[in-house]
From TrEMBL:
It comes from the Bacteria. Keywords: Membrane, Transmembrane, Transmembrane helix. Residues 9-131 form the RDD domain. This is RDD family protein. GO terms for cellular component: membrane. It is found in: Membrane. Signal peptide: none annotated. Its main location: membrane. The chain crosses the membrane at residues 20-42, 63-84, 96-118. It is a multi-pass membrane protein.
Amino acid sequence: MVLDLGIGFVNGIVRVNGVHWLITAAGIALYFVLLPYMTRGYTLGKWLVRVRLVSADGSAPTLRALAVRAGVFYGTILGINGVLSTAMNLNSESALVLVGCLLFFALVNLLLVVNFIANIRSRSFFHDRVSGVVNSPVQAVSRT
């Protein structure tokens, strides 16, 4: 078992004979798809900050919508960063390939950050718009 500390989100995952993609996908599916589906839109973090995921009509999100949301977000981030990290590792001898991959890697991640900053007020990010699932504040319960 080797802990790879290279560039990219994917490389922070413990590699167990190349099964890291399966372990990552299972973890994402359990925490970001199945848990919110079973708890009507909550994960531990969302519960702590009093926010939950809802469909556009305010109802609990469907399993399909949660899967699309997680797939688009993590598929984009892990997919692109994973491909670039692999390309950099395979072509580590070529400075031109390394610089090209690093620049593209930086551009893609910069575009993600810009998307988040540009949409902070609306709180509707690219994966939310594609899936139709959004974060909604939870009303505090009055204890009178």
